[in-house]
Amino acid sequence: MQQQLQRNDQSLGDLFSELANETSTLVRQEITLAQAEMTKKAVKAGKDIGFLTAGGAVGYAALLAFMAGVIAILAYIMPVWLAAFIVAAIAGGVAYFMAMPALTELRKIDPAPRETVATLKEDAKWLKKQVS
To answer: Disulfide check for 99: which of 36, 55, 63, 77 has CB 3.0–4.6 Å away?
Structure first.
């Protein structure tokens, strides 16, 4: 009640000054929220990119080792070029299945700060209500 009486005694200039201060505080808080949300999404994307990179490196190493060993064995029963193509196809399939889960997860990430956009819309409605 005391605060309500105090507000009634404030001049229009004081009220607009208070509104400006509260609005700038609100904007700073929204920027902080957006930064936190984007950081969270960037960390998740970074992890998925790390797994994707590791999957690619392991796939490449598997390709080299597997090709060398299996080509040598298959060369006893078929031409070397055919053995090389068969081994390359198998190693490529393994690399594909290692990388696909990380790519799927990366596609699911929405880079837009949805929470911040929603609260900014709420803030705009609040500000319009305060001014009118």
So the answer is: 55
Q: Among 50, 54, 32, 31, which Cα is nearest to 42's?
A: 50
Contact between residue 127 and residue 27 where contact means Cβ atoms under 8 Å apart:
no
The pLDDT of residue 106 is above 80: yes
pLDDT at 117 > cutoff 80: no
Instruction: State the DSSP string of the chain.
Output: -HHHHHHHHS-HHHHHHHHHHHHHHHHHHHHHHHHHHHHHHHHHHHHHHHHHHHHHHHHHHHHHHHHHHHHHHHTTTS-HHHHHHHHHHHHHHHHHHHHHHHHHHHHH---S-HHHHHHHHHHHHHHHHHH-
Residue 26 CA, chain-centre distance (Å), reads 25
Q: Which of 7, 98, 8, 110 lies closest to 54 in space, CA to CA?
A: 98
Statement: the pTM of the whole predicted model exceeds 0.70: no
Residues 97, 90: Cα–Cα separation, whole Å: 11
